[in-house]
Write a structure and sequence with these properties.
The chain has one domain. A 3-stranded mixed β-sheet has the order 1-3-2, with helices on one face. It has 5 helices and 3 strands. Helix 2 packs across helix 3. Helices cover about 50% and strands about 15% of the residues. The structure holds zinc ion (ZN). Zinc ion binds next to helix 1 and helix 4.
């Protein structure tokens, strides 16, 4: 996984990294842990099976719906996105991607 350190993305202090088409943007000073890498690899698997662009559209659409449901609480809305729930649930399980089923975020 290609990692690019920068000062701009992701926006927001509570976010450590953003995965753009399998490339990881991480702010300077953020510690890269095996769990973070695994979390982002799970997102890469989600992206590949949705052919990338539909992943971002579905992700953004779900975030907006969750944002309304969470009454503007951005972090709560973010953690409720199905793609994030799968990635957080399995970020500590380094064998997960080997046995992950397709579209597991919606199962
Ligand atoms: Zn994530």
């Amino acid at each position: 996984m290609k990692i690019i350190r920068n000062n701009l993305l992701p926006v927001g202090r509570q976010y450590a990294a953003i995965n753009l088409f399998g490339m990881l943007l991480i702010k300077h000073g953020v510690r890269v842990t095996p769990e973070l890498i695994n979390h982002e690899r799970i997102h890469s698997a989600q992206m590949r099976e949705l052919l990338y662009l539909p992943f971002y559209i579905a992700y953004l659409a779900e975030w907006l719906v969750r944002l309304a449901a969470c009454r503007g609480n951005c972090h709560e809305a973010y953690r409720a996105i199905t793609f994030e729930k799968e990635a957080y649930r399995h970020s500590g399980d380094h064998g997960y991607l080997g046995r992950r089923r397709h579209f597991a975020q919606w199962r």
